[in-house]
């Protein structure tokens, strides 16, 4: 029998590709996005997060086999912090009790190679403290200084560190729920399209994320990795950030980080 899996960001990019892949495998997908999804909700707001959790629980009958937080925003905007960190964490925390009711529950998030790059410590710390007003105030200060490009790495680093912290605790590992992340390099999606179209940004991207193995990835590459993370086959992996990035992380950080 197929499983029931919630996927945020299901209307485009990696989330859409993952939802399509899971459905082909016979799973039921409860998609969450701003539009064109089973659950239309705004994960940038507290109200939208509550709505998303409530509607997913209603559709799943209170028991959920998997949850994947794919929804993400890039660029110098407060939404990057609101959606990438607080939206993802609230969704997974809200769905965790339903996952605990399943026979073989699994959860995953989409991180990023950007999480290893220069960030803003104040934004990072406020995220990890669960203080959204402080995180947004810090993000505002970052934007004022013209360093808005640090918000995306800050949000993704915070998400990875949150995952590493909670995944081995009683609410996740202790409840039999593997929680892990896939951290892509450069992926061809609608979100990354502007980077390919801007010659200056294209050069910066290539320098920041060198991918010696097969170059840029298509969304299906990341979707397949996520599908395995939330499959019953993954019974013992917890708190891992897996870089599906063409070798970018190993190139940038070298052999001593593993």
Characterize the structure shown.
With 258 residues, the protein is of the alpha/beta class. The protein is built from 10 helices and 9 strands. Strands 3-2-1-4-5-6-9 form a 7-stranded parallel beta sheet, with helices on both faces. The longest helix has 23 residues, at 78-100. The model has no long low-confidence stretch (mean pLDDT 95).
Strands in their spatial order, largest beta sheet: 3-2-1-4-5-6-9
Q: What does the largest sheet look like?
A: 7 strands, parallel
What general form does the structure show?
globular
Order of helices and strands: EHEEHEHEHHHEEHHEHEH
Please tell me how large the radius of gyration is. 17 Å
Kindly name the structural category: alpha/beta
Q: Could you give the distance between the termini?
A: 37 Å
Kindly estimate the percentage of residues that lie in beta strands according to DSSP: 5-15%
| Contiguous helical run count | 10
Low-confidence runs: none
Number of strands: 9
The percentage helix is 40-55%
Nearest-integer average pLDDT: 95
InterPro entries: NAD(P)-bd_dom_sf, SDR_fam
Protein name: SDR family oxidoreductase
Family: Belongs to the short-chain dehydrogenases/reductases (SDR) family.
Keywords: Oxidoreductase
């Amino acid at each position: 029998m197929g499983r029931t899996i919630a996927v945020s960001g299901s209307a485009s990019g990696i989330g859409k590709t993952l939802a399509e892949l899971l459905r082909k495998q016979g799973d039921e997908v409860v998609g969450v996005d701003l539009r064109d999804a089973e659950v239309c909700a705004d994960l940038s707001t507290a109200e939208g997060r509550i709505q998303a959790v409530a509607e997913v629980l209603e559709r799943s009958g209170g028991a959920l086999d998997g949850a994947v937080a794919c929804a993400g925003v890039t660029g110098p905007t407060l939404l990057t912090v609101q959606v990438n960190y607080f939206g993802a964490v609230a969704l997974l925390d809200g769905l965790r009790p339903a996952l605990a009711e399943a026979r073989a529950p699994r959860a995953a998030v989409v991180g990023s190679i950007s999480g290893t790059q220069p960030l803003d410590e104040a934004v990072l710390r406020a995220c990890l403290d669960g203080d959204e007003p402080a995180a947004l105030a810090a993000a505002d200060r970052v934007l004022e200084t013209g360093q808005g490009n640090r918000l995306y790495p800050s949000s993704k680093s915070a998400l990875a560190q949150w995952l590493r912290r909670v995944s081995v605790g009683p609410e996740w590992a202790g409840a039999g729920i593997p929680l892990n992340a896939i951290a892509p390099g450069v992926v061809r999606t609608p979100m990354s399209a502007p980077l390919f179209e801007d010659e200056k940004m294209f050069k910066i991207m290539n320098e920041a994320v060198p991918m010696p193995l097969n170059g840029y990835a298509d969304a299906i590459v990341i979707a397949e990795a996520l599908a395995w993370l939330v499959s019953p086959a993954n019974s013992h992996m917890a708190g891992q950030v897996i870089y599906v990035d063409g070798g970018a992380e190993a190139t940038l950080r070298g052999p001593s980080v593993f």
